[in-house]
Amino acid sequence: MRVTLLSADVGSVKSDLVCLGVFGGKKNGNLSYDTMNGLLGGALGSVSKDDDFSGKPGETLVVHSLGNHSFKRASLIGCGKTSKISAKTFLTLGAQAARLGNKSAAKSVALSLPESDWDLETVLELVTRGAYLGSYRYDKYRSKSGRENSIKKLTLHITGKSSRKLSAAITKGRIVAESVAIGRDLVNEPPSDLYPQTFAAFAKKTASKVGLKIKILKPDQLAKMGMNLLLGVGQGSKQTPRLVHLSYKPAKATKKKPIVLVGKGITFDSGGLSLKPGASMVDMKMDMGGAGAVLGAMNAIAQLKPNVAVHGILALAENMPSGTAIRPGDVIKGASGRTVEINNTDAEGRLVLADALHYALGLKPAKIIDLATLTGACMVALGPHTVGCFSNDDELADGILGSANAVGESFWRLPLTEVLKEQLKSDIADTKNTGERWGGSITAALFLQEFVGGTTWAHLDIAGPALSGSNSGHLTKGGSGVAIATLVDHIC
Ligand code: BES
Ligand code: MN
Ligand code: ZN
User: Fold this and answer.
1) Candidates 281, 340, 346, 371: which one to mutate for ligand 1, based on the most atoms within 8 Å of Cβ?
2) Rounded distance from Cα 287 to ligand 3 centre (Å)
3) What is the pLDDT of residue 135?
């Protein structure tokens, strides 16, 4: 699909489907509404009355032009109340236009944007990202792709003049969407085909496409560096761990110290010897969502070229039970020199992250942001749609939360409650890997904090939103690519 910009009235344009974004209540806010309704002999008004179309967010209505016009179908897409406009309003508008187009086998779709006091660049970027992501499909494993009928062209109609800035906003929307799609693809990929080695190979392919530097550390190198926590988590599996180091260096850096992104990349989490019950294991191919998000974000960063160096670290392993797996009771000394008593092999994410965070410190970063599908407890706390954000720095936390809001993602800050550190005390080692049930996402974050020293750091627990349970707004069922847009906004 190509997204383009046109300053012309939608009614005069030849296209299979014309969409009008309209606000709820009085179906107002679209300058083309009266023209289109007039062309259709008042059909938009009367059908929406009969069908109770009230312009709720994402609500749609379609009427056929019966061959009398330059467009085959016309539709209204609800944008909700003007008092409730958010980034999601425009993401959903783009997504619904693309969905309607695909459903009605339209090759070309024209979308007339609703009038609002939002900055047009922002709106265009959001609508574009929404359109690409709403039409995202994962059909690699289907014998028939079903893409024959998908839209080829989406034209965004504006009333003012088009400009280079406005086109750049559309390009950015596309780049971010393609990067989010990388995150979705990786989460959706079956673990039989996506394991540390193949994940690293894909990262290499991606890096060479967009011009990132990449280093892939194999088990013998990891052993030399003392990364025994990462190696330990992977030692029950035939598929050996990898640590991938991607780097972006700007032509002119305005800041000396780099930003480091670190992602948990457990390509399948069976729980290890602390085996998960069957039902909890079903979705555990998604346990590399953090690493997928880091790779997706790096893909966008390489193209959007911020003036700061950014590194992406992927900690890749498969957590399996076997005769060679780590045991509850084992003590492992990781790269930082700290010893960890394993009391639950299912708390493996924090182990691989500990070694990856220590590696990140070696890059002397201004800040570290790690992303991980870390705890079920975070989903209990915040529900399945919200990312838990922990940080030792208020400015960083505020910045990330602000970016999330700007790009239409739901993040919420959670506390690093000091007293819970008690839970991680071990009788024989420097720390245990697991605390008690209560406050489980906090103790996980406190464990990670031990490995970042005093460095400015944020930990994003994406366990809930890494998977979307349904097609809604710009989300599609399956991998969501959550946090990628937020990271890109925060950095670029
Ligand atoms: N990968 C899981 C966390 C998870 C759970 C992600 C559900 C997505 C959905 C993680 O490795 C894990 O197993 N965490 C344990 C920690 C516990 C053993 C302290 C959990 O949440 O139960
Ligand atoms: Mn686990
Ligand atoms: Zn896990």
Assistant:
1) 346
2) 5
3) 95
